[in-house]
Amino acid sequence: MTVTTTDLFATHEELLNSALRAITERGYWSAYPESPSPKVYGETAAADGKAAFTALLGKEFPLDQPADEWVAPEQSPFGIPLGVRYPRTSPDALIAAARAALPSWRDAGPRMRAGVCLEILARLHKRVFELANAVHATTGQAFVMAFQAGGPHALDRALEAVAYGYAEQTRQVGSVVWTKKADTLAKTYHLVPRGIGLVIGCNTFPTWNSWPGLFASLITGNPVLVKPHPGAVLPLAITVQVAREVLAEAGLDPNTVQLAVDSREAPIAKDLALRPEVRLIDFTGSTAFGDWLEDNARQAQVYTEKAGVNTVVIDSTADFAGMCRNLGFSLTLYSGQMCTTPQNLLIPAGGIETEAGHKSFDEVVDGIAGAVRAITADPAKAVEFTGAIVNGDVVDRIEAARKMGDVVLDSAELAHPAYAGAVVRTPMIVKVTDGYGSECFGPVTFAVPTESTADSIGIFRETVGEKGAITAAVYSTDESVLDAVEQAAMEVGVHLSANLTGGIFVNQSAAFSDFHASGANPAANAALTDGAFVASRFRIVQSRRPA
Prior knowledge:
One of its GO terms (cellular component) is cytoplasmic side of plasma membrane. There is one protein chain. It is built from 18 helices and 22 strands. The chain has helices spanning 5-25, 38-41, 45-56, 91-126, 128-139, 143-150, 152-169, 211-219, 234-249, 269-273, 287-296, 320-332, 361-376, 379-386, 392-401, 453-467, 479-492, 531-535; strands spanning 69-71, 86-88, 175-180, 183-193, 196-200, 224-227, 257-259, 278-284, 301-305, 311-314, 316-317, 344-348, 352-354, 357-359, 406-409, 413-414, 424-425, 428-431, 444-450, 471-475, 495-498, 538-546. It has a seven-stranded mixed β-sheet, sandwiched between helices.
Protein backbone atom coordinates (compact mmCIF):
# COMPACT_ATOMS: atom_id res chain seq x y z
CA MET A 1 0.00 0.00 0.00
CA THR A 2 1.20 3.48 -0.86
CA VAL A 3 -0.12 6.64 0.74
CA THR A 4 0.72 10.26 0.11
CA THR A 5 1.85 12.60 2.82
CA THR A 6 -0.91 15.00 1.77
CA ASP A 7 -3.50 12.30 2.40
CA LEU A 8 -1.98 11.59 5.81
CA PHE A 9 -2.17 15.21 6.89
CA ALA A 10 -5.79 15.49 5.77
CA THR A 11 -6.64 12.24 7.56
CA HIS A 12 -5.28 13.47 10.88
CA GLU A 13 -5.78 17.24 10.61
CA GLU A 14 -8.76 17.30 12.97
CA LEU A 15 -6.79 15.42 15.64
CA LEU A 16 -3.86 17.80 15.23
CA ASN A 17 -6.12 20.83 15.58
CA SER A 18 -7.60 19.38 18.76
CA ALA A 19 -4.13 18.80 20.16
CA LEU A 20 -3.09 22.35 19.24
CA ARG A 21 -6.06 23.69 21.20
CA ALA A 22 -5.30 21.40 24.13
CA ILE A 23 -1.72 22.61 24.60
CA THR A 24 -2.98 26.16 24.97
CA GLU A 25 -6.14 25.56 27.01
CA ARG A 26 -4.48 23.03 29.43
CA GLY A 27 -7.81 21.43 30.42
CA TYR A 28 -8.50 17.71 30.54
CA TRP A 29 -8.18 16.17 27.08
CA SER A 30 -6.93 12.81 25.87
CA ALA A 31 -6.88 11.45 22.35
CA TYR A 32 -6.49 7.79 23.29
CA PRO A 33 -8.81 5.93 25.70
CA GLU A 34 -6.92 4.69 28.77
CA SER A 35 -9.31 1.88 29.67
CA PRO A 36 -8.41 -1.56 28.26
CA SER A 37 -12.08 -2.53 28.41
CA PRO A 38 -13.49 -4.63 25.55
CA LYS A 39 -16.28 -2.05 25.33
CA VAL A 40 -13.65 0.48 24.25
CA TYR A 41 -11.25 -1.54 22.13
CA GLY A 42 -13.37 -4.49 21.03
CA GLU A 43 -14.05 -7.98 22.35
CA THR A 44 -11.00 -9.61 20.75
CA ALA A 45 -8.47 -6.76 21.06
CA ALA A 46 -6.79 -8.06 24.21
CA ALA A 47 -6.48 -11.63 22.95
CA ASP A 48 -5.29 -10.49 19.52
CA GLY A 49 -2.64 -8.26 21.11
CA LYS A 50 -1.42 -11.05 23.38
CA ALA A 51 -1.21 -13.39 20.42
CA ALA A 52 0.76 -10.85 18.38
CA PHE A 53 3.17 -10.39 21.29
CA THR A 54 3.58 -14.14 21.81
CA ALA A 55 4.27 -14.64 18.11
CA LEU A 56 7.38 -12.45 18.42
CA LEU A 57 9.01 -14.47 21.21
CA GLY A 58 12.03 -16.66 20.51
CA LYS A 59 12.45 -15.36 16.95
CA GLU A 60 14.27 -12.76 14.90
CA PHE A 61 12.35 -9.50 15.12
CA PRO A 62 11.06 -8.54 11.64
CA LEU A 63 12.89 -5.29 10.95
CA ASP A 64 14.33 -4.33 7.58
CA GLN A 65 17.69 -3.10 8.85
CA PRO A 66 21.08 -4.56 7.99
CA ALA A 67 22.40 -6.78 10.78
CA ASP A 68 26.04 -7.35 11.68
CA GLU A 69 24.71 -9.87 14.18
CA TRP A 70 21.49 -10.75 16.01
CA VAL A 71 21.31 -10.15 19.75
CA ALA A 72 18.75 -10.99 22.45
CA PRO A 73 19.67 -8.84 25.49
CA GLU A 74 16.36 -8.77 27.37
CA GLN A 75 15.56 -10.58 30.59
CA SER A 76 12.00 -10.21 31.85
CA PRO A 77 11.53 -9.15 35.50
CA PHE A 78 8.63 -11.63 35.54
CA GLY A 79 10.82 -14.46 34.28
CA ILE A 80 8.92 -14.59 30.98
CA PRO A 81 11.15 -16.32 28.38
CA LEU A 82 11.50 -13.63 25.73
CA GLY A 83 14.34 -14.66 23.43
CA VAL A 84 13.55 -12.03 20.80
CA ARG A 85 16.59 -11.46 18.57
CA TYR A 86 17.23 -8.01 17.15
CA PRO A 87 19.49 -6.83 14.32
CA ARG A 88 22.57 -5.13 15.67
CA THR A 89 23.75 -2.53 13.18
CA SER A 90 27.13 -0.83 13.48
CA PRO A 91 27.18 2.84 14.53
CA ASP A 92 28.92 3.76 11.28
CA ALA A 93 26.14 2.18 9.21
CA LEU A 94 23.42 3.79 11.34
CA ILE A 95 24.97 7.24 11.01
CA ALA A 96 25.52 6.90 7.27
CA ALA A 97 21.93 5.81 6.66
CA ALA A 98 20.53 8.61 8.84
CA ARG A 99 22.63 11.22 7.01
CA ALA A 100 21.31 9.97 3.69
CA ALA A 101 17.71 10.15 4.97
CA LEU A 102 17.97 13.68 6.35
CA PRO A 103 17.50 15.77 3.14
CA SER A 104 14.22 14.18 2.08
CA TRP A 105 12.79 14.33 5.60
CA ARG A 106 13.87 17.96 5.97
CA ASP A 107 12.37 18.91 2.62
CA ALA A 108 9.06 17.21 3.41
CA GLY A 109 8.10 20.22 5.53
CA PRO A 110 6.00 20.52 8.69
CA ARG A 111 2.65 19.49 7.17
CA MET A 112 3.97 16.33 5.57
CA ARG A 113 6.00 15.42 8.64
CA ALA A 114 2.97 15.98 10.86
CA GLY A 115 0.88 13.65 8.71
CA VAL A 116 3.51 10.93 8.88
CA CYS A 117 4.00 11.30 12.64
CA LEU A 118 0.27 11.17 13.31
CA GLU A 119 -0.13 8.10 11.11
CA ILE A 120 2.64 6.38 13.07
CA LEU A 121 0.78 7.17 16.29
CA ALA A 122 -2.48 5.87 14.81
CA ARG A 123 -0.88 2.55 13.90
CA LEU A 124 0.83 2.25 17.27
CA HIS A 125 -2.59 2.77 18.84
CA LYS A 126 -3.96 -0.12 16.78
CA ARG A 127 -1.22 -2.31 18.29
CA VAL A 128 -1.74 -1.01 21.83
CA PHE A 129 -2.40 -4.40 23.44
CA GLU A 130 0.66 -5.89 21.75
CA LEU A 131 2.69 -2.94 23.06
CA ALA A 132 1.16 -3.33 26.52
CA ASN A 133 2.29 -6.95 26.67
CA ALA A 134 5.77 -5.92 25.53
CA VAL A 135 6.01 -3.18 28.17
CA HIS A 136 4.61 -5.52 30.84
CA ALA A 137 7.09 -8.29 30.04
CA THR A 138 10.20 -6.12 29.79
CA THR A 139 9.68 -3.59 32.60
CA GLY A 140 7.89 -5.52 35.35
CA GLN A 141 4.92 -3.16 35.30
CA ALA A 142 1.57 -4.72 36.16
CA PHE A 143 -0.45 -5.19 32.99
CA VAL A 144 -3.02 -2.40 33.45
CA MET A 145 -0.26 0.09 34.21
CA ALA A 146 1.74 -1.18 31.23
CA PHE A 147 -1.32 -0.69 29.04
CA GLN A 148 -2.08 2.82 30.27
CA ALA A 149 1.41 4.26 30.73
CA GLY A 150 2.98 2.36 27.86
CA GLY A 151 0.07 2.91 25.47
CA PRO A 152 -2.53 5.72 25.70
CA HIS A 153 -0.58 7.97 28.08
CA ALA A 154 2.61 7.59 26.05
CA LEU A 155 0.66 8.26 22.85
CA ASP A 156 -0.76 11.42 24.40
CA ARG A 157 2.73 12.64 25.30
CA ALA A 158 3.95 11.88 21.78
CA LEU A 159 1.00 13.72 20.26
CA GLU A 160 1.72 16.61 22.58
CA ALA A 161 5.27 16.79 21.21
CA VAL A 162 3.97 16.74 17.64
CA ALA A 163 1.55 19.56 18.40
CA TYR A 164 4.23 21.73 20.02
CA GLY A 165 6.63 21.02 17.17
CA TYR A 166 4.07 21.87 14.52
CA ALA A 167 3.08 25.06 16.34
CA GLU A 168 6.67 26.24 16.70
CA GLN A 169 7.40 25.69 13.00
CA THR A 170 4.25 27.34 11.68
CA ARG A 171 3.96 30.37 13.93
CA GLN A 172 5.20 32.63 11.11
CA VAL A 173 5.03 32.80 7.33
CA GLY A 174 7.53 30.91 5.23
CA SER A 175 8.22 33.81 2.93
CA VAL A 176 7.40 37.47 2.50
CA VAL A 177 7.92 40.35 0.08
CA TRP A 178 9.49 43.13 2.13
CA THR A 179 9.49 46.77 1.01
CA LYS A 180 11.32 49.73 2.51
CA LYS A 181 11.11 52.88 0.44
CA ALA A 182 12.75 52.05 -2.91
CA ASP A 183 14.00 48.61 -1.91
CA THR A 184 11.96 45.45 -2.22
CA LEU A 185 13.28 42.08 -1.13
CA ALA A 186 11.85 38.59 -1.32
CA LYS A 187 12.67 36.86 1.95
CA THR A 188 12.45 33.13 2.56
CA TYR A 189 12.67 31.51 5.99
CA HIS A 190 13.97 27.95 5.79
CA LEU A 191 13.30 25.50 8.61
CA VAL A 192 16.59 23.67 9.11
CA PRO A 193 16.77 20.62 11.40
CA ARG A 194 19.66 20.29 13.84
CA GLY A 195 20.78 16.92 12.51
CA ILE A 196 20.60 13.33 13.64
CA GLY A 197 18.69 12.69 16.85
CA LEU A 198 19.55 9.97 19.37
CA VAL A 199 16.94 8.68 21.82
CA ILE A 200 18.40 6.64 24.69
CA GLY A 201 15.59 4.67 26.29
CA CYS A 202 15.13 3.58 29.89
CA ASN A 203 14.24 0.18 31.36
CA THR A 204 11.18 1.29 33.34
CA PHE A 205 9.11 3.36 30.88
CA PRO A 206 10.47 2.64 27.41
CA THR A 207 7.64 4.26 25.43
CA TRP A 208 6.39 6.94 27.85
CA ASN A 209 9.87 8.42 28.27
CA SER A 210 11.15 7.86 24.71
CA TRP A 211 8.27 8.80 22.46
CA PRO A 212 8.20 12.53 23.33
CA GLY A 213 11.83 13.02 22.27
CA LEU A 214 11.44 10.74 19.26
CA PHE A 215 8.45 12.61 17.89
CA ALA A 216 9.75 16.05 18.86
CA SER A 217 12.83 15.37 16.71
CA LEU A 218 10.85 13.82 13.86
CA ILE A 219 8.28 16.60 13.55
CA THR A 220 11.09 19.16 13.37
CA GLY A 221 12.85 17.36 10.51
CA ASN A 222 15.54 15.29 12.22
CA PRO A 223 16.16 11.59 11.52
CA VAL A 224 16.35 9.58 14.73
CA LEU A 225 18.35 6.65 16.06
CA VAL A 226 16.38 4.84 18.77
CA LYS A 227 18.73 3.18 21.30
CA PRO A 228 16.61 1.13 23.72
CA HIS A 229 17.75 0.03 27.15
CA PRO A 230 19.04 -3.55 26.74
CA GLY A 231 16.39 -4.70 29.20
CA ALA A 232 13.44 -3.17 27.32
CA VAL A 233 14.04 -3.39 23.58
CA LEU A 234 10.76 -4.86 22.30
CA PRO A 235 8.45 -1.85 22.87
CA LEU A 236 10.81 0.44 20.97
CA ALA A 237 11.53 -2.17 18.30
CA ILE A 238 7.80 -2.26 17.56
CA THR A 239 7.83 1.55 17.49
CA VAL A 240 10.66 1.64 14.95
CA GLN A 241 9.03 -1.10 12.87
CA VAL A 242 5.79 0.88 12.60
CA ALA A 243 7.61 4.15 11.84
CA ARG A 244 9.62 2.57 9.03
CA GLU A 245 6.50 1.03 7.51
CA VAL A 246 4.70 4.38 7.40
CA LEU A 247 7.73 6.20 6.01
CA ALA A 248 8.19 3.65 3.23
CA GLU A 249 4.51 3.69 2.29
CA ALA A 250 4.66 7.49 2.10
CA GLY A 251 7.58 7.31 -0.33
CA LEU A 252 10.11 8.52 2.23
CA ASP A 253 13.35 6.96 3.38
CA PRO A 254 12.60 4.42 6.14
CA ASN A 255 16.06 5.08 7.57
CA THR A 256 14.64 8.31 8.93
CA VAL A 257 14.03 6.09 11.98
CA GLN A 258 16.43 3.29 12.90
CA LEU A 259 16.86 0.90 15.81
CA ALA A 260 20.24 0.95 17.54
CA VAL A 261 20.38 -2.18 19.69
CA ASP A 262 23.18 -2.97 22.12
CA SER A 263 23.78 -5.13 25.18
CA ARG A 264 25.03 -4.55 28.71
CA GLU A 265 28.29 -6.25 27.75
CA ALA A 266 28.85 -4.17 24.61
CA PRO A 267 27.11 -0.79 24.97
CA ILE A 268 27.09 1.74 22.13
CA ALA A 269 25.35 4.74 23.72
CA LYS A 270 28.58 6.64 24.43
CA ASP A 271 29.93 5.93 20.96
CA LEU A 272 26.79 7.27 19.30
CA ALA A 273 26.45 10.21 21.68
CA LEU A 274 29.91 11.54 20.78
CA ARG A 275 29.51 11.27 17.02
CA PRO A 276 29.69 14.76 15.49
CA GLU A 277 26.69 13.98 13.27
CA VAL A 278 24.46 13.43 16.32
CA ARG A 279 23.06 16.83 17.17
CA LEU A 280 20.14 15.94 19.46
CA ILE A 281 20.12 13.53 22.41
CA ASP A 282 17.15 12.54 24.57
CA PHE A 283 17.99 10.53 27.67
CA THR A 284 16.11 9.17 30.67
CA GLY A 285 18.04 7.33 33.36
CA SER A 286 20.75 7.65 35.96
CA THR A 287 22.22 10.93 37.10
CA ALA A 288 25.73 9.65 36.43
CA PHE A 289 25.15 8.96 32.73
CA GLY A 290 22.94 12.02 32.29
CA ASP A 291 25.70 14.21 33.72
CA TRP A 292 28.22 12.50 31.45
CA LEU A 293 26.12 13.27 28.40
CA GLU A 294 25.69 16.90 29.40
CA ASP A 295 29.43 17.26 30.04
CA ASN A 296 30.77 15.36 27.05
CA ALA A 297 28.28 15.38 24.16
CA ARG A 298 29.05 19.04 23.56
CA GLN A 299 28.18 18.93 19.85
CA ALA A 300 24.56 18.05 20.64
CA GLN A 301 21.55 19.64 22.26
CA VAL A 302 21.05 17.25 25.19
CA TYR A 303 17.71 16.71 26.94
CA THR A 304 17.98 14.71 30.16
CA GLU A 305 15.66 13.37 32.82
CA LYS A 306 17.75 12.02 35.68
CA ALA A 307 17.33 11.27 39.37
CA GLY A 308 15.83 13.50 42.04
CA VAL A 309 14.76 13.62 45.65
CA ASN A 310 10.97 13.82 45.51
CA THR A 311 9.69 15.30 48.76
CA VAL A 312 6.45 15.56 50.73
CA VAL A 313 6.05 18.26 53.37
CA ILE A 314 3.43 17.15 55.91
CA ASP A 315 2.23 20.00 58.14
CA SER A 316 -1.43 19.19 58.87
CA THR A 317 -4.46 17.68 57.18
CA ALA A 318 -8.24 17.77 57.26
CA ASP A 319 -8.44 14.17 56.03
CA PHE A 320 -5.84 12.01 57.76
CA ALA A 321 -7.12 8.71 56.39
CA GLY A 322 -7.36 10.13 52.88
CA MET A 323 -3.81 11.49 53.08
CA CYS A 324 -2.47 8.14 54.26
CA ARG A 325 -4.35 6.21 51.55
CA ASN A 326 -3.16 8.58 48.85
CA LEU A 327 0.47 8.48 49.92
CA GLY A 328 0.34 4.73 50.55
CA PHE A 329 -0.83 4.11 47.00
CA SER A 330 1.78 6.50 45.60
CA LEU A 331 4.53 4.58 47.39
CA THR A 332 3.20 1.19 46.28
CA LEU A 333 2.56 1.89 42.59
CA TYR A 334 5.14 -0.01 40.50
CA SER A 335 7.14 -0.60 43.69
CA GLY A 336 8.28 3.00 43.75
CA GLN A 337 10.15 2.53 40.45
CA MET A 338 8.81 5.76 39.01
CA CYS A 339 10.81 8.96 38.70
CA THR A 340 7.84 10.72 40.30
CA THR A 341 7.42 8.54 43.42
CA PRO A 342 7.81 10.36 46.78
CA GLN A 343 10.97 9.53 48.67
CA ASN A 344 11.27 11.89 51.63
CA LEU A 345 8.39 12.49 54.03
CA LEU A 346 9.25 15.58 56.09
CA ILE A 347 7.16 15.54 59.29
CA PRO A 348 7.58 17.69 62.41
CA ALA A 349 8.98 15.58 65.27
CA GLY A 350 6.23 16.98 67.47
CA GLY A 351 3.51 15.67 65.16
CA ILE A 352 0.74 17.35 63.17
CA GLU A 353 -2.86 18.51 63.60
CA THR A 354 -5.64 16.58 61.88
CA GLU A 355 -9.44 16.54 61.81
CA ALA A 356 -9.19 13.64 64.29
CA GLY A 357 -6.97 15.56 66.69
CA HIS A 358 -3.23 15.72 67.15
CA LYS A 359 -1.16 12.91 65.63
CA SER A 360 2.38 12.23 66.80
CA PHE A 361 5.22 11.71 64.34
CA ASP A 362 5.02 7.96 64.88
CA GLU A 363 1.24 7.96 64.38
CA VAL A 364 1.60 9.79 61.08
CA VAL A 365 4.22 7.36 59.82
CA ASP A 366 2.25 4.37 61.10
CA GLY A 367 -0.84 5.68 59.31
CA ILE A 368 0.98 5.78 55.98
CA ALA A 369 2.58 2.40 56.66
CA GLY A 370 -0.85 0.99 57.48
CA ALA A 371 -2.16 2.17 54.13
CA VAL A 372 0.68 0.36 52.38
CA ARG A 373 -0.03 -2.79 54.40
CA ALA A 374 -3.69 -2.65 53.39
CA ILE A 375 -2.79 -2.42 49.71
CA THR A 376 -0.25 -5.23 49.86
CA ALA A 377 -1.98 -7.59 52.33
CA ASP A 378 -3.32 -9.90 49.60
CA PRO A 379 -0.40 -10.88 47.32
CA ALA A 380 -2.67 -11.72 44.38
CA LYS A 381 -4.11 -8.20 44.46
CA ALA A 382 -0.89 -6.49 45.55
CA VAL A 383 1.10 -7.52 42.49
CA GLU A 384 -1.39 -5.67 40.31
CA PHE A 385 -0.05 -2.50 41.93
CA THR A 386 3.57 -3.35 42.73
CA GLY A 387 4.49 -5.17 39.54
CA ALA A 388 7.96 -6.70 39.71
CA ILE A 389 11.41 -5.33 40.55
CA VAL A 390 13.04 -4.25 37.32
CA ASN A 391 16.64 -5.25 38.16
CA GLY A 392 18.93 -6.43 40.94
CA ASP A 393 20.21 -2.93 41.71
CA VAL A 394 16.83 -2.09 43.23
CA VAL A 395 17.02 -5.07 45.57
CA ASP A 396 20.50 -3.98 46.62
CA ARG A 397 19.20 -0.51 47.48
CA ILE A 398 16.45 -2.01 49.63
CA GLU A 399 19.07 -3.95 51.58
CA ALA A 400 21.25 -0.87 52.02
CA ALA A 401 18.32 1.30 53.16
CA ARG A 402 17.40 -1.22 55.83
CA LYS A 403 20.63 -0.26 57.64
CA MET A 404 20.11 3.49 57.46
CA GLY A 405 17.71 3.93 60.38
CA ASP A 406 14.71 2.50 62.20
CA VAL A 407 12.63 0.35 59.87
CA VAL A 408 8.98 1.29 60.42
CA LEU A 409 7.69 -0.86 57.56
CA ASP A 410 9.96 -3.52 56.15
CA SER A 411 9.98 -4.56 52.52
CA ALA A 412 8.62 -8.06 52.09
CA GLU A 413 8.89 -10.62 49.31
CA LEU A 414 5.65 -11.58 47.61
CA ALA A 415 4.98 -14.62 45.47
CA HIS A 416 3.46 -13.67 42.12
CA PRO A 417 0.48 -15.92 41.36
CA ALA A 418 1.11 -15.87 37.61
CA TYR A 419 4.90 -15.66 37.32
CA ALA A 420 6.95 -17.94 39.52
CA GLY A 421 10.17 -16.21 38.48
CA ALA A 422 9.05 -12.68 39.36
CA VAL A 423 10.97 -10.70 41.99
CA VAL A 424 8.33 -8.77 43.94
CA ARG A 425 9.03 -6.48 46.90
CA THR A 426 6.62 -4.35 48.93
CA PRO A 427 7.50 -0.76 49.94
CA MET A 428 9.80 0.01 52.86
CA ILE A 429 9.58 3.02 55.18
CA VAL A 430 12.65 3.89 57.24
CA LYS A 431 12.86 6.59 59.92
CA VAL A 432 16.13 8.47 59.32
CA THR A 433 17.84 11.65 60.42
CA ASP A 434 20.49 11.75 57.69
CA GLY A 435 21.39 10.09 54.40
CA TYR A 436 18.14 11.11 52.73
CA GLY A 437 19.65 13.82 50.53
CA SER A 438 20.27 11.56 47.51
CA GLU A 439 17.87 9.48 45.46
CA CYS A 440 17.25 5.87 46.49
CA PHE A 441 15.36 4.57 43.45
CA GLY A 442 12.88 1.84 44.26
CA PRO A 443 10.39 0.96 47.01
CA VAL A 444 12.21 2.91 49.73
CA THR A 445 10.74 5.90 51.60
CA PHE A 446 12.46 7.94 54.28
CA ALA A 447 10.38 9.40 57.13
CA VAL A 448 12.34 12.39 58.40
CA PRO A 449 11.54 14.05 61.77
CA THR A 450 12.08 17.80 61.50
CA GLU A 451 12.16 20.56 64.09
CA SER A 452 9.08 22.24 62.61
CA THR A 453 7.24 22.81 59.35
CA ALA A 454 9.52 25.79 58.75
CA ASP A 455 12.46 23.41 59.12
CA SER A 456 10.79 20.99 56.71
CA ILE A 457 10.48 23.74 54.13
CA GLY A 458 14.14 24.60 54.61
CA ILE A 459 15.18 20.97 54.12
CA PHE A 460 12.91 20.74 51.07
CA ARG A 461 14.50 23.83 49.57
CA GLU A 462 18.03 22.61 50.30
CA THR A 463 17.73 18.99 49.11
CA VAL A 464 15.72 19.71 45.98
CA GLY A 465 17.87 22.71 45.16
CA GLU A 466 21.00 20.55 45.36
CA LYS A 467 19.81 17.21 43.95
CA GLY A 468 16.63 18.14 42.09
CA ALA A 469 13.19 16.54 42.04
CA ILE A 470 10.51 15.69 39.51
CA THR A 471 7.59 16.03 41.96
CA ALA A 472 6.81 17.53 45.35
CA ALA A 473 3.75 17.55 47.60
CA VAL A 474 2.48 19.34 50.67
CA TYR A 475 -0.30 18.63 53.14
CA SER A 476 -1.55 21.54 55.22
CA THR A 477 -4.74 23.23 56.36
CA ASP A 478 -2.85 26.51 56.75
CA GLU A 479 -2.94 28.75 53.67
CA SER A 480 0.27 30.47 54.72
CA VAL A 481 2.08 27.12 54.80
CA LEU A 482 0.71 26.19 51.38
CA ASP A 483 1.89 29.54 50.03
CA ALA A 484 5.32 29.16 51.63
CA VAL A 485 5.85 25.70 50.14
CA GLU A 486 4.60 26.88 46.76
CA GLN A 487 7.09 29.76 46.89
CA ALA A 488 9.88 27.33 47.79
CA ALA A 489 8.82 25.02 44.95
CA MET A 490 9.05 27.89 42.49
CA GLU A 491 12.50 28.79 43.79
CA VAL A 492 13.86 25.27 43.31
CA GLY A 493 11.86 24.64 40.12
CA VAL A 494 9.74 21.63 41.02
CA HIS A 495 6.08 20.95 40.30
CA LEU A 496 3.96 20.90 43.47
CA SER A 497 0.76 19.09 44.43
CA ALA A 498 -1.21 20.11 47.53
CA ASN A 499 -3.58 18.11 49.73
CA LEU A 500 -4.15 15.15 47.42
CA THR A 501 -6.49 12.73 49.19
CA GLY A 502 -8.62 11.29 46.38
CA GLY A 503 -7.97 9.55 43.10
CA ILE A 504 -5.21 11.86 41.80
CA PHE A 505 -1.68 11.00 42.94
CA VAL A 506 1.54 12.99 43.04
CA ASN A 507 3.36 10.49 40.82
CA GLN A 508 0.87 10.77 37.97
CA SER A 509 0.69 13.56 35.41
CA ALA A 510 -1.78 14.28 32.63
CA ALA A 511 -0.59 15.13 29.14
CA PHE A 512 -1.82 18.41 27.68
CA SER A 513 -2.30 19.81 31.20
CA ASP A 514 0.52 18.78 33.55
CA PHE A 515 4.14 19.38 32.67
CA HIS A 516 6.39 16.43 33.53
CA ALA A 517 9.60 17.76 35.10
CA SER A 518 10.34 21.45 34.78
CA GLY A 519 13.87 21.65 33.43
CA ALA A 520 14.54 24.07 36.28
CA ASN A 521 16.41 21.85 38.75
CA PRO A 522 19.16 19.18 38.60
CA ALA A 523 16.73 16.28 38.13
CA ALA A 524 15.96 17.25 34.53
CA ASN A 525 17.05 19.94 32.10
CA ALA A 526 13.85 19.74 30.04
CA ALA A 527 10.10 19.43 30.47
CA LEU A 528 7.67 17.02 28.83
CA THR A 529 6.32 18.77 26.95
CA ASP A 530 6.63 22.49 26.31
CA GLY A 531 7.77 24.82 23.55
CA ALA A 532 11.38 24.74 24.74
CA PHE A 533 11.43 20.95 24.34
CA VAL A 534 10.95 21.26 20.58
CA ALA A 535 12.00 24.77 19.54
CA SER A 536 15.75 24.12 19.70
CA ARG A 537 15.49 21.04 17.50
CA PHE A 538 15.44 23.22 14.38
CA ARG A 539 16.72 26.61 13.30
CA ILE A 540 15.43 29.22 10.87
CA VAL A 541 17.89 30.13 8.12
CA GLN A 542 16.91 33.16 6.09
CA SER A 543 17.65 34.02 2.47
CA ARG A 544 16.76 37.27 0.71
CA ARG A 545 17.10 38.66 -2.79
CA PRO A 546 15.69 41.59 -4.74
CA ALA A 547 12.06 40.95 -5.60
